[in-house]
């Protein structure tokens, strides 16, 4: 693992360090929900907006990343992204009301949404094609590990300090990091200045509307307003797509969709992310509701899966050139299939079975997500890499959010007529369809 990390440039390592700290913030809040509900006297559907709002904000900004890369120097862009994140974190840390935390999380989400496709594009552009698998394997290590260890860190902090300490921790570490790494930031991207297309930017609200509609399904009725938001959002996206095709220098160059293998690889990254994020949702429920472990211990039980993921990501990246994407995906989807099967049959019988299932679900992700992103972008010319990465990260977010909603709906619906334990088991069985769909998609991938 460390051998692979040493192959990256100092600038790439600086980007990864910043991305790691900001990534952790995605998954830390869920552990703090009960405390925040009590402190601010809000209900479960309201506190959920700390995650839902974060995800919507991320999705709105991701498609803008190619324009930002082409028009803002990397030094200014990176410092601006970090400054926005620090502002949101500081606001959430010192606020005296729940609305302040929501606004802070929205600002954090905007910053993370701008960073993710940007730093992945820059690393891809600055790495030779034959080394991209290794580089993106390390990126996968950072992204996956951060998502997995978020609940662990929040569990430890909340056990002995307070929820404000969570925000303080990220603020202090990131502030020190951006100051120390200033001399490592390089303007490596070739800029192509263009006017900011406000009309296209407004139509991007369609992504946020769709994600919002998806996210509120478990807690709200599908009424006239829900359908109205969906119709308006879809219409905005149709306008956005038509406009991008006609513009000489579009926000998102949809020509990437024409390259062979790109679309299947894009969908595979979403399915693998689904497996990873569902593991972080289901496993704490099994540990806390079935085996009655504390939030701290349920977080600690995620450590083996996080370690397994971090060990496999760089190795799978190195394997991409040797055995090809198709075989890697077969391995990863098979691991996810077995993981869901174990969780759906033995999940209520033994916490060790849950631990093994989590390792298989997260480990399977290592063989799919970053190798698929690498393979998809390897099929593109260098000038389209940022556009290809922006589309992949946006769609991955939408698929991941949809998976969480499906899991919530299944658990709630099944729990009406049976026990909560049975609902968790049946939900795990239903998600076996995710790797099965992935295996069918793999057939369309060109062999190495």
UniProtKB/TrEMBL annotation:
UniProt keyword list: Membrane, Transmembrane, Transmembrane helix, Transport
Transmembrane segments: 48-69, 76-95, 134-154, 160-181, 201-218, 224-242, 262-287, 293-312, 349-373, 394-414, 420-443
Protein origin, superkingdom: Bacteria
Entry-linked InterPro entries: MFS, MFS_dom, MFS_trans_sf
A matching Pfam family: MFS_1
Domain Major facilitator superfamily (MFS) profile, residue spans: 11-446
SUPFAM superfamilies: MFS general substrate transporter (SSF103473)
Main location (coarse class): membrane
Gene3D superfamilies linked to this entry: MFS general substrate transporter like domains, Multidrug resistance protein D
GO cellular component, one term: plasma membrane
Protein localization: Cell membrane
MF-aspect GO terms: transmembrane transporter activity
Topological relation to the membrane, as annotated: Multi-pass membrane protein
Identification of the protein by name: Multidrug export protein EmrB
Gene name tied to this protein: emrB_2
């Amino acid at each position: 693992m460390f051998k692979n990390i040493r192959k990256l440039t100092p600038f790439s390592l600086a980007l990864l360090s910043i991305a790691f700290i900001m990534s952790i913030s995605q998954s830390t809040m869920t552990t703090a929900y009960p405390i925040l509900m009590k402190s601010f006297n809000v209900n479960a559907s309201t506190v959920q907006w700390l995650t839902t709002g974060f995800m919507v904000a991320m999705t709105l900004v991701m498609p803008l990343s190619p324009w930002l890369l082409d028009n803002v120097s990397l030094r200014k862009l990176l410092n601006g992204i970090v400054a926005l994140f620090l502002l949101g974190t500081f606001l959430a840390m010192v606020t005296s009301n729940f609305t302040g935390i929501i606004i802070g999380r929205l600002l954090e989400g905007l910053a993370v949404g701008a960073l993710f496709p940007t730093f992945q594009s820059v690393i891809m552009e600055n790495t030779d094609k034959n080394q991209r698998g290794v580089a993106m394997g390390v990126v996968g290590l950072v992204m996956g590990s951060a998502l997995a260890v978020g609940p662990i860190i929040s569990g430890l902090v909340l056990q002995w300090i307070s929820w404000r300490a969570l925000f303080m921790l990220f603020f202090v570490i990131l502030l020190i990091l951006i100051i120390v790494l200033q001399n490592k930031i390089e303007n490596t991207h070739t800029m192509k200045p263009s006017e900011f297309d406000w009309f296209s930017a407004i139509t991007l609200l369609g992504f946020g509307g769709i994600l919002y509609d998806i996210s509120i399904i478990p807690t709200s009725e599908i009424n006239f307003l829900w359908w109205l938001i969906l119709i308006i959002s879809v219409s905005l996206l149709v306008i956005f797509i038509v406009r991008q095709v006609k513009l000489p220098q579009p926000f998102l160059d949809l020509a990437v969709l024409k390259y062979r293998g790109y679309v299947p690889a894009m969908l595979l990254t979403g399915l693998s992310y689904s497996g990873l994020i569902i593991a972080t949702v289901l496993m704490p429920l099994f540990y806390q509701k079935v085996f009655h472990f504390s939030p701290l211990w349920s977080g600690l039980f995620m450590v083996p899966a996080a370690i397994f993921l971090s060990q496999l990501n760089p190795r799978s990246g190195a394997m991409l050139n040797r055995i090809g994407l198709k075989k890697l995906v077969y391995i990863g989807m098979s691991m996810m299939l077995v993981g869901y099967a174990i969780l759906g049959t033995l999940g209520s019988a033994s916490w060790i079975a849950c631990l093994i299932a989590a390792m298989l679900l997260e480990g399977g992700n290592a063989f799919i997500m970053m190798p698929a992103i690498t393979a998809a972008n390897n099929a593109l010319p260098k000038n389209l890499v940022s556009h290809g990465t922006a589309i992949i990260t946006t769609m991955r977010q939408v698929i991941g959010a949809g998976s969480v909603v499906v899991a919530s709906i299944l658990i709630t619906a099944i729990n009406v007529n049976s026990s909560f334990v049975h609902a968790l088991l049946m939900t795990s069985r239903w998600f076996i369809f995710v790797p099965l769909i992935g295996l069918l998609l793999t057939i369309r991938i060109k062999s190495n």
